[in-house]
Backbone:
């Protein structure tokens, strides 16, 4: 044995399951960007915090019966971001496009929710966006910003032109967003509906909305969870989903149609350790569900 095995270990990589880039089916990329955040900032610290959390939970999913130790992951590190939002989104679009061209699934760890705009632009036509979020993020502008984490879904609809946008766990909106959603044909299911009708019914609805869709970009804003389960998010919103509901929903609707996904909005400076663990678990459950479908 040499000092390498005895006294050193590699720096934190997601899940601690590092394979080479060429072997990997899933490529993890951190995006430490939170410049347009409107309330509590700090999502730039999340990629590292979620990686660390991921090292301390088990990788077996009882929902999918998959152990991620068998999946092939490569963590390529963090995107080099700038304070210029457009430039950062351009870089992210480029890197995401390269990962997709290598026939791998990009797994992005935000950062704030605007990163979805950069990544979704890399997914070319005929895809749907599936978003778990307390908010619709459909404002036209906010605090004089046209491109921010509160407006990005509207920009996606204009720029990336997905065939369908489906938002789940909605409970905090303004009238302008509701009007736009109606006009643009954007579907959403509220937290109240999910609680009243049950998770199985919500799964049926989501599957119906995504019927005939071949490619899905999945995004999970961790504020979809109730603050009791995920206190450290940038815009906490009461009356949210329980963690088990989110995991049940994700493992039922995630399959190999998911071409890329992200988990965003965790703000580690406000954390007691719980939120980063929920985010790491969310990534594990998504990957396990995709992997289950891939294995067939
Ligand atoms: Mn959001
Ligand atoms: Mn949100």
Residues:
């Amino acid at each position: 044995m040499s000092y390498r095995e005895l006294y050193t270990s590699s720096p934190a990589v997601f899940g601690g399951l590092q394979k080479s880039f060429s072997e990997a089916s899933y490529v993890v990329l951190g995006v430490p960007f939170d410049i347009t955040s409107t309330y509590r900032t700090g999502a730039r610290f999340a990629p590292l915090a979620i990686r660390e959390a991921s090292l301390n939970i088990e990788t077996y999913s009882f929902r999918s019966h998959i152990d991620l130790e068998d999946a092939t992951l490569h963590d390529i590190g963090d995107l080099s971001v700038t304070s210029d939002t457009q430039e950062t989104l351009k870089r992210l679009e480029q890197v995401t496009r390269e990962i997709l061209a290598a026939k791998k699934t990009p797994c992005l760890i935000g950062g704030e929710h605007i990163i979805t705009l950069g990544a979704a632009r890399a997914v070319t036509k005929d895809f749907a966006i599936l978003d778990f979020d307390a908010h619709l993020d459909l404002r036209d502008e906010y605090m004089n910003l046209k491109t921010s984490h509160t407006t990005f879904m509207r920009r996606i609809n204009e720029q990336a032109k997905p065939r369908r946008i489906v938002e789940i766990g909605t409970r905090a909106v303004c009238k302008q967003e509701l009007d736009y959603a109606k006009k643009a044909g954007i579907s959403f299911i509220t937290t109240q509906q999910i609680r009243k009708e049950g998770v199985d019914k919500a799964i049926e609805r989501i599957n119906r909305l995504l019927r005939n869709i071949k490619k899905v970009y999945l995004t999970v804003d961790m504020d979809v969870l109730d603050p009791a389960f995920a206190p450290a998010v940038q815009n906490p919103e009461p009356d949210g989903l329980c963690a088990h509901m989110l995991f049940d929903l994700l493992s039922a609707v995630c399959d190999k149609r998911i071409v890329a996904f992200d988990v965003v909005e965790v703000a580690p400076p406000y954390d007691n350790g719980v939120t980063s663990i929920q985010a790491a678990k969310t990534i594990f459950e998504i990957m396990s569900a995709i992997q289950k479908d891939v294995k067939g």
User: Anything to note?
Assistant: Residues 10-295 form a domain with the Arginase; Chain A fold (CATH 3.40.800.10). The radius of gyration is 18 Å.
